Amino acid sequence: MGAAGPPPGAARRAAATAWLQTYGVYAGVAVLLIFNTAFTDHFLSAENFRTQAVQVAPILIVALGMALAIGTEGIDLSVGSVMALSTSLIALYLGYGPWLALLVAIVGGIAVGVLNGSLVAFIGVQPIVATLALMVGAKGLALVLLPQLRDVRDEGMRSLGSGDLLGVPYPALIALALVLVVGFTVRRTTFGRQLLAIGDSRPAAELAGLPVRRVLICVYVCSGVLAATAGFLATARLGASDPTALGNLMELSAITAVVVGGTSLAGGRVRIAGTVAGAVLIQLLTATLIKHDLPPSWTQMAQAAVIVLAVYAARERGKR
Fold it and tell me: What Rg, from alpha-carbon coordinates, does the chain have?
């Protein structure tokens, strides 16, 4: 007699959790869109869609870097602090022109990424500990460089934050371009395949002769550069450099977007389309609560619930 299959209830639960992990983020976006269409005033206006596109761009850009780190079975908690450091450096160097300010901000992101990657790759510090240390250190440096808010007086940056091309805001176009670049890198390049191999099994990747340390450093550098770019765009949108507030809890939003988008915390997998949908979900959730006069603390609790649900779905799927 053959072995009995799983009980019908267990099979249904397994199918439900598999569906939730694969398509849950898209269903969540659809539910929020339907709810807001029915109950939120002026939700379908062009101006509202423009606002949502501008606001989601920094979340999405940071989430792309977070997805790369999580794909290696790591994490980057320093992304919010890199955004704060970026806005401080922009304020200090904007007098020399916006392009130089952006370059200096990116160099700052590279420096944090190199430190994160070196701690993980060469010293063997756990990613959560290494990036936590840089989260505190980079934030402190940002506040030392710029202790208080400073207005952005450069017209080029203001135009970047508020301008558009054929009705599509510049920040959204930049975010879309970065999505295409990161997606191509993960799917079509040797670096992307090495990244996923390391996340799947770092010891096996080392035995196979892959440049594990170099790839890990590059991953955290990419995360730092993307966070610095998001800081630049957020500064342009706000019209001010404010390291005390910019980037606060961005790591929570980025992790939520990546995990709910189907990228496993166990590594070895990066879902770029899911990450995009996850960032849109977080932005829509935040906007919905704000438009219905609920306090910001509700957004944080909702994000925590989304993370728990996504991790539970991944855990249940991993048991099969």
Answer: 20
Residue 193 Rama label (left phi>0; alpha psi -120 to 50; beta):
alpha
Name which of 71, 127, 76 is nearest 247 in CA terms.
Answer: 76
Looking at the domain assignment, is residue 49 inside a domain? no
pLDDT band at residue 315 under the 50/70/90 scheme = low
User: How wide is the angle at C-alpha 191 spanned by C-alphas 188 and 197, nearest 5°?
Assistant: 95
3-state secondary structure of 152: coil
The pair phi, psi for residue 257, each rounded to 5°, is: -60, -40
- In the chain, the DSSP E strands lie at 150-151, 164-165, 168-169, 240-241
Residue with tokens 């506040």: 143
- Residue 151 backbone dihedrals phi, psi, to 5 degrees: -70, 145
d(CA 136, CA 36): 37
Q: pLDDT per residue over 116-166, tens digit each?
A: 999 999 999 999 999 999 999 999 999 999 988 888 888 888 888 888 888
pTM greater than the 0.85 cutoff: yes
- Does residue 66 lie in a domain region? yes
Residue 119 lies in a domain: yes
Helix (H, G, I), strand (E, B) or coil at 228: helix
Tokens of 176: 């879309």
Beta strand spans in 125-254 (E) = 150-151, 164-165, 168-169, 240-241
Domain count, the chain: 1
Summarised one tens digit per residue, pLDDT across range 40-80 is: 888 889 899 999 999 999 999 999 999 999 999 999 999 99
Tally of CB atoms within 10 A around 96:
11
| Contact present, 220 and 117 (Cβ < 8 Å) | yes
Give the up-direction half-sphere exposure of residue 232: CA atoms within 13 A in the CB hemisphere. 31
> How far is the C-alpha of 146 from the C-alpha of 136, rounded, in Å?
16
- Which CATH number covers residue 34? 1.10.3470
- Residues 20 and 27: their CA atoms lie apart, in Å, by 9
